[in-house]
UniProtKB/TrEMBL annotation:
Coiled coil: none annotated. Keywords: Membrane, Transmembrane, Transmembrane helix, Transport. Its main location: membrane. It is a multi-pass membrane protein. This is MFS transporter. The chain crosses the membrane at residues 27-51, 71-91.
Length: 92
């Protein structure tokens, strides 16, 4: 008995030669990534001065506020990643 030949792997986006991007597209993507990094740093630095007022007004402890800050940063970063993926898929 002969064993059946293995099936070829499914085609993926990585198959084939890499796409060559024009200089303008590369610069646009670089600007997009720099802006996303700036936006992330700006959001985090804008949140830090508000922490004491949030702790007093909501009656939470410092450890609870650390969890809230971490959750905010994680949520913002995940949405930023999703938006960048969408933009990259449109740009390609």
């Amino acid at each position: 008995m002969s064993s059946p030949s293995p099936e070829p792997p499914a085609k993926t986006l990585a198959d084939g030669p890499p796409k060559r991007l024009s200089l303008i597209r590369k610069l646009m993507l670089l600007m997009l990534f720099c802006f996303a990094q700036f936006l992330d740093a700006f959001n985090n630095s804008a949140l830090f001065p508000a922490i004491p007022a949030l702790e007093v007004s909501t009656g939470i402890t410092q450890s609870q506020s650390a969890w809230i800050i971490s959750a905010y940063q994680l949520t913002f970063a995940s949405f930023l990643l999703i938006v960048c993926i969408i933009i990259l898929s449109i740009a390609m």
